[in-house]
Structures are given as structure tokens and as C-alpha cells.
């Protein structure tokens, strides 16, 4: 779930209201009234952070085409999909929304669009949208200043070339040095065991452990690069929200 939830929705306990809405849905005769009440029900689920239930409730609305409700529904879908981390889905919904007659993004959806671009690591698009929203180039430059993403595949490759270097590249210098030290010691033990005539008691166990650390270390370096990028994305997303809230 997105770290930005507290900034984008007003979380509150509306469960007692949910019971009343359910009763009104059950007794309503007009399908348009039912649809409107289902939208309210979805909003209650959203405000209580039950996002999947909110989406399922929106799916039950059947006669919204061509109405203001259709615009409200697509905006809710965009926001909720972003909040639960369905970034590709969010992007597809933003594109779909452009084909709805009279469509207009809510301010919250505009913010979610910027944050979604950040989550997809499309920083140029995020910066352009943020510029339109705040209309202040100095604020944009300050927020989007130097975001050094790590390349997970490069981290993986570096660890193959020099054990531990991929972890160092990903920002985990101490772990990288430990990995280098352990793998160097294991490799030395394996070679030294052969030299001293102990292939079965020293060399084979040491080389087997070395291989495990060698290949596992490369995968771990890749994972750490991905985690580092997530930290950068989360930090940038929170910086954007703080700047908007000023």
C-alpha cells in the first residue's frame, strides 16, 4: 500500500454510515439512486482503507455512462488503483479517462497522476505534471533535484566481476565489504586446500560455499538496488506531497 495514503484520503471510521447506506440500497427502486448509493458505499470503503472492496463496489454500478457519475467513478478508480500500488492499471485508467466526454481530473487525481509517474520511475513526465500543478519552476527544481536511481542489472553484473561491488554500488558499502571478505576467504581456503593436499576436507566444502555466496551475492545486490530505488521513489513522493501541501 502506498505511503501517500494519509495525504490523499481523509481516513475515518464510517462503518456505522455503511449500514445505513446498505439499507437504502436494499429499499431503493430507482436504478440511478442505487448507483449513486453504491458510489457513496465505495467512498466509505475508501475512507476506511478497504480499497479492494471499494473497487468491487464501483464495479456494481451499471448505468453511469454519459453522466457526471461516470467521471466521478473513473477518478475514484484512478486514485484507488494508485493507493493499492497498481501503477500500470492507474496509467491505463488515466488514458481511458481522456476518452470520456466532459472528463476533468480532480485535484487529488492530478496529484495521484504525478505520484504514479514517480512510482513508474518516469521522472520527466512527473516533473512536467508537477510544473503544471504548482506553476513555480523554482519549487519544481528543488523537489526533483538529483534522484540517483540504481540499475539492478548493473549491480548484479558488478557482483559477478568483483564480489561485493554490486552491494557497494547499491549503497550498502559495509555489506559489500563483508561479502568481499567472506568470498575471498572461502576462495583462498579452497585453493590452499588443494595446494596442501586436502581436496575433500577443505577445498570442496570451501568452493561449494564460495559458489553459493558468489551467485547469491549477485542476486542480493540486484535486490538491494531495487530496494534503494524504492527508497528514492518513496522519498520523492513524500517531498512532492509536502511541497503541494505548503
Number of helices: 13
Number of strands: 0
C-alpha Rg (nearest Å): 26 Å
Order of helices and strands: HHHHHHHHHHHHH
Largest sheet: none
User: Judging from the principal axes of the Cα atoms, what is the shape?
Assistant: elongated
- The percentage helix is over 70%
Helix/strand structural class: mainly alpha
Distance between the termini: 24 Å
Unreliable parts: none
User: Strand share of the residues?
Assistant: under 5%
Describe the structure.
With 246 residues, the protein is mainly α. Helix content is 76%, strand content 0%. The chain has 13 helices and no strands. The model has no long low-confidence stretch (mean pLDDT 89).
Can I get a quick summary?
With 246 residues, the protein is mostly helical. It has helices spanning 5-8, 15-27, 31-47, 51-59, 68-83, 87-97, 107-119, 123-134, 137-143, 152-161, 165-169, 173-196, 199-245.
List the SSEs and their pairings.
Layout: H1 5-8, H2 15-27, H3 31-47, H4 51-59, H5 68-83, H6 87-97, H7 107-119, H8 123-134, H9 137-143, H10 152-161, H11 165-169, H12 173-196, H13 199-245
Short descriptors:
mainly alpha, 13 helices, single chain, 246 residues, 76% helix
Amino acid at each position: 500500500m502506498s505511503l501517500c495514503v494519509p495525504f490523499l484520503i481523509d481516513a475515518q471510521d464510517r462503518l456505522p454510515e455503511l449500514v445505513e447506506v446498505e439499507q437504502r440500497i436494499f429499499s431503493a427502486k430507482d436504478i440511478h439512486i442505487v448507483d449513486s448509493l453504491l458510489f457513496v458505499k465505495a467512498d466509505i470503503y475508501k475512507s476506511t482503507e478497504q480499497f479492494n472492496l471499494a473497487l468491487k463496489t464501483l464495479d456494481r454500478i451499471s448505468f453511469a455512462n454519459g453522466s457526471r457519475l461516470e467521471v466521478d467513478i473513473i477518478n475514484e478508480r484512478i486514485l484507488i488503483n494508485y493507493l493499492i500500488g497498481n501503477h500500470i492499471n492507474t496509467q491505463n485508467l488515466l488514458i481511458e479517462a481522456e476518452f470520456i466526454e466532459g472528463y476533468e481530473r480532480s485535484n487529488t487525481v492530478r496529484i495521484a497522476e504525478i505520484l504514479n509517474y514517480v512510482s513508474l520511475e518516469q521522472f520527466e513526465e512527473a516533473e512536467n505534471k508537477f510544473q503544471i500543478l504548482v506553476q513555480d519552476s523554482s519549487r519544481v527544481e528543488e523537489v526533483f533535484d538529483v534522484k540517483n536511481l540504481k540499475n539492478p542489472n548493473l549491480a548484479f553484473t558488478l557482483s559477478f566481476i568483483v564480489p561485493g561491488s554490486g552491494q557497494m554500488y547499491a549503497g550498502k558499502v559495509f555489506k559489500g565489504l563483508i561479502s568481499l571478505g567472506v568470498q575471498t576467504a572461502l576462495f583462498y581456503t579452497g585453493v590452499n586446500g588443494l595446494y596442501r593436499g586436502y581436496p575433500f576436507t577443505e577445498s570442496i566444502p570451501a568452493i561449494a560455499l564460495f559458489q553459493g555466496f558468489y551467485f547469491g551475492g549477485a542476486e542480493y545486490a540486484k535486490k538491494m538496488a531495487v530496494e534503494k530505488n524504492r527508497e528514492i521513489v518513496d522519498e520523492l513522493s513524500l517531498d512532492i506531497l509536502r511541497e503541494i501541501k505548503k
